[in-house]
Amino acid sequence: MKECGILVPIVTPCRPSGELDMEGLRQVCQDMLSAGCHSLFVGSSTGRGPWLSREERVKICQAVVAQVDGKVPVVAGCISLGLDDMIENAQAMKAAGAQAAVVTAPVYFKYSQAELARIFLDFADASPLPVMLYDIPDFAGIKMSQEIILELARHENIIGFKDSTDDFPRFQALLAALQARSDFYLLQGKERWLADSLRQGASGFVVSMTHLDPLLFSTLYQAARSGNVEQADVLQAAISRVMVLVAQMFSRRPETSTLFHFLNQVLRLRGVCENIVLEQDGECPAWLVETAAQAREICAAAIPAR
Fold this sequence. Notes:
By secondary structure, this protein is an alpha/beta fold. It has one domain (5-302): TIM Barrel. Helices cover 49% and strands 11% of the residues. Strands 1-2-3-4-5-6-7-8 form an 8-stranded parallel β-barrel, surrounded by 5 helices. The chain is globular and about 45 Å long. It starts with a strand and ends with a helix.
């Protein structure tokens, strides 16, 4: 498996009206770089990519590429409703400086596995960027089969796969099937499986909660890679406690804006950026402010000496 490390799906700082906050974006990038993260992902679901116009995504990508200045790779979400628009997104992101295109199944319509494979193969044929596939059934409405994933992994322009299904047995099966592929990235997309995935040979991980404390996630990665099982397990336990809070908050408020409010409160507490929520997201409930503070405390306590 090819090494990737921590690929961060960065948030998109903005004004409540939607105007991009470019200084806040630079601060988010620097926060991740300072903690030792290995690459940045613009236009992700965490970054509200599907909501943004292509022009906004181009502007974000250009700013992030300029900020990292070649220190780490930048990959870009090219998610859309149809193939032509996905390809045009990839062309725009290449021009903006991205080094790979990330795509999910096109949303809105229902597809068979064979139809989905055809869409991805056609995209990979046409994309001017190497392609990373992203399986996230909660948003895309379909879970890719293991057989289709392995078929697609043979395409010369498909370089990786991010698994956000929470199906760890399938992830293990993919690890076993792809372990000899030194040219392919297999990335874990669920926080509770990070330590186990890294120990078993995953290329790295892509999780939104890295924003809570990038040093915590970076330290977990290093501990797992160096074979420090005890430290990795302690840090994973802290992350898992945070994820219990996250599950509880989504049970209470299932809207996607709950994630944006939660991350917004944490980023404010950490002094990274001022705002990532939009007017339509409404006011942040007091209990969610408290949940964010509790999550921040758990993360801070996991690495007391900084």
